């Protein structure tokens, strides 16, 4: 399984989690707000910001009833047409260049999710470093081929996809020229519940497709993301906004800046804590060995006296002989006078 090299960072086994702030439609159609989101993401320690590149006309049809109307009572977008929703959520294409420029100034990587071939052609003019395929497009094989043909690294969310569908997508991407691939475990509900996250899929997916695997996380909070790192997730993607109270199409399941900062800190701590298989005291632990228990004389004793439970104790600190020798010494005579607090040693008997 190869690690993936992206500008300024390596993604994969042995490297800290790659944290991506997904802007989506949280700019609320204000370029000023979009730029403020970039600054907040950089301030929170995120490594990258991701956009979505489409228009309402490139992603759906201008129809407001039937199949094109959202009636699901549990959907955050209930009562809206797809066209109306995407017309509100899309990021104007003319914003991409100033957004990418500002990201470079802030030390953030910037890339995007294209939703059709025209978006790929447009993003190529901006020399994006990689491409993300959304879960809802992971079976759009013509789009997969188009993106793969650029030769850029691909990040593919696997929400809703069966093993067979993921296998087909991965094969098509690789056959079309993709050499660097990251898959993301994803639950495509908004918000997603922890119970539906099934993070144990992550190491299974790594073995099955022989590539790095991360998490596109729509749960509330950071618990699922931290757990995913323990299971080998190399990348965490979370929707990001300045404030959920400001509203917007994705605000209800988006992180705020302080939450993103905690995500960056705690996922890195989780990654650091993985370490390696290790037994025995570590370098820092060695200083604590003295607080183990060991054998000490607990009363002043004269030469020839017998060691008993009253004058031999298992106590802290741990400079004396180990407690496992306690029964060996009971009943033995000491060969010299000793004071209370003398550590027991073999030359005393």
UniProtKB/TrEMBL annotation:
Membrane recorded as keyword: no
Top-level enzyme category: transferase
Documented EC number(s): 2.5.1.56
Residue ranges of every copy of the AFP-like domain listed in the record: 294-349
InterPro entries hit by this protein: AFP_Neu5c_C_sf, Aldolase_TIM, PseI-like, PseI/NeuA/B-like_N, Pseudaminic_synth_PseI, SAF, SAF_AFP_Neu5Ac, SAF_PseI/NeuA/NeuB
UniProt keyword list: Transferase
Keyword Transferase: yes
GO molecular function, one term: N-acylneuraminate-9-phosphate synthase activity
PROSITE patterns, A to Z: AFP_LIKE (PS50844)
Biological processes, Gene Ontology terms: carbohydrate biosynthetic process
Span of the signal peptide: none
Pfam families in the record: NeuB, SAF
NCBIfam families found in the cross-reference section: PseI
Protein name: N-acetylneuraminate synthase
Originating organism: Syntrophomonas wolfei subsp. wolfei (strain DSM 2245B / Goettingen)
């Amino acid at each position: 399984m190869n690690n993936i090299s992206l500008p300024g960072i390596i993604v994969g086994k042995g490297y800290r989690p790659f944290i991506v702030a997904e802007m989506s439609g949280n700019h609320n159609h204000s370029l000023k707000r979009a730029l403020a989101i970039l600054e907040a993401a950089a301030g929170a320690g995120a490594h990258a910001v991701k956009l979505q590149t489409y228009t309402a006309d490139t992603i759906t049809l201008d129809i407001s009833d039937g199949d094109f109307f959202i009636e699901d009572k549990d959907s955050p977008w209930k009562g809206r047409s797809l066209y109306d929703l995407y017309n509100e959520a899309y990021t104007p294409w003319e914003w991409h260049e100033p957004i990418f420029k500002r990201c470079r100034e802030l030390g953030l990587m910037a890339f995007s999710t294209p939703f059709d071939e025209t978006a790929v052609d447009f993003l190529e003019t901006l020399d994006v470093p990689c491409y993300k395929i959304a879960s809802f497009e992971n079976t759009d094989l013509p789009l997969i081929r188009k993106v793969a043909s650029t030769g850029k690294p691909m990040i593919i969310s696997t929400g809703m996809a069966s093993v067979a569908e993921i296998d087909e997508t991965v094969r098509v991407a690789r056959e079309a020229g993709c050499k660097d691939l990251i898959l993301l475990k994803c639950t495509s509900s908004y918000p997603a519940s922890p119970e539906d996250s099934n993070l144990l899929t992550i190491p299974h997916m790594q073995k099955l497709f022989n590539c790095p695997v991360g998490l596109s996380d729509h749960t509330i909070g950071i618990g699922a993301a931290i757990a995913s790192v323990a299971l080998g997730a190399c990348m965490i993607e979370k929707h990001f906004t300045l404030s959920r109270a400001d509203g917007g199409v994705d605000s209800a399941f988006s992180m705020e800046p302080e939450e993103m900062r905690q995500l960056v800190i705690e996922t890195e701590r989780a990654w650091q804590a993985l370490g390696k298989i290790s037994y025995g005291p570590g370098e820092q632990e060695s200083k604590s060995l003295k607080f183990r228990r060991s054998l000490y004389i607990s009363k002043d004793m004269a030469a020839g006296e017998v060691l008993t439970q009253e004058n031999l104790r298992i106590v802290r600190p741990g400079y004396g002989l180990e407690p496992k020798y306690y029964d060996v010494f009971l009943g033995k005579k000491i060969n010299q006078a000793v004071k209370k607090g003398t550590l027991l040693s073999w030359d005393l008997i």
